[in-house]
Amino acid sequence: MKELNEVAFKSIALLLGAGTVVGWILACIGLIGLITALVCFLHKSPQPGLSVKRALVFTVSVLFLILPLWFVEFVKDHRIIISENGSVVQAFPKNTIIWQNRWDKLISQGRLTDYRERYVRVAMSAHPITDNPKVRSLKYSISVKSYESPEALIALESVVGKYTYAMGIDPTTNSDEKAKITNKIRFLLFEFNEKKSKDLATLYNPLDDAQQARFKAMVKESIGTQLTGIGCYLDYVAFDIGE
After folding, report:
1. Which one, of 236, 220, 219, lies nearest residue 126 by Cα?
2. Would you tell me how many other CB atoms lie within 10 Å of the CB of residue 136?
């Protein structure tokens, strides 16, 4: 028992020294010692040498399976590394396992970010003057999504700024980022209201599918190109008449 305690103590000390390449080697040796001591303790044998031999075989088998995990990096889907000049260093469209030295080389060339879909919904209103003449209260809502591609993210960053991925922070629900996208879309829609005021005055029945289709075509014609320029597209468009 005393010998086992000494082995366990030395093994823990070696584990604490881990941190460099040499440290990882020491950690492996320490882990072998810890598992060997544990197996010997749990499976005592009348023949001590046989017990240690079985423990070592078991330990080496376990390490053979888990050791590669210390030298690889797990990268989630839709992660991307972008260089300082805005070019794509490496995109990961799906969950990927990559060797640690390869990962270190890639991440040193830029910043890690996320190109998953962004989604915002914007409500607006307009008060066009009809030919009657009278003021019509028109309200409408649109939803905008970003394309899930590295190029779309780079375009979107012209609006939201450069983003670096951080553990525990989801950029797709980041309130600051969503506010910037929303403000950009509102800016485009204010311009749309001014530009299409006469056409908006012809809309009076939100239950008419033809009028809804015409309104959607107006919005797409006015802001579709600008949305594409920031990596986004129209997902939903509908108008209603206010009370």
Report:
1. 219
2. 18
Closest CA to 118 of 141, 142, 144, 94: 144
> Exposed, middle or buried by CB within 10 Å (0-12, 13-18, 19+), for 170?
exposed
Asked: is 119-241 a CATH 1.10.10.10 domain? The reply is no
To which residue do tokens 């029945």 refer?
Answer: 205
> Token digits for 30?
């320490």
User: Rg of the chain over CA atoms, in angstroms?
Assistant: 31
CA separation for the pair 80, 147 (Å, rounded): 14
Give buried/exposed letters for 202-238 (b at 16+ CB in 10 A, else e): ebeebeeeeebeebbebbeebbeeebeebbbebeebe
The continuous run of DSSP H or E covering 175 comes out as helix 175-195
Give the type of residue at 4: L
The distance from CA 145 to its chain's CA centroid, rounded to whole angstroms, is 15
**Minimal CA–CA distance to 121: which of 138, 142, 107?**
142
Domain segments of the chain: what residues?
Answer: 2-71, 72-114, 119-241
Spatial contact of 108 and 101, defined as CB atoms under 8 Å apart: no
pLDDT digits (tens, 9 = 90+) for 104-118: 999 999 998 889 999
Question: Residue 141 CB: number of other CB atoms within 10 A?
Answer: 14
Q: 40-94, pLDDT tens digit by residue? A: 555 555 555 555 566 666 666 665 556 555 678 888 899 999 998 888 999 999 9
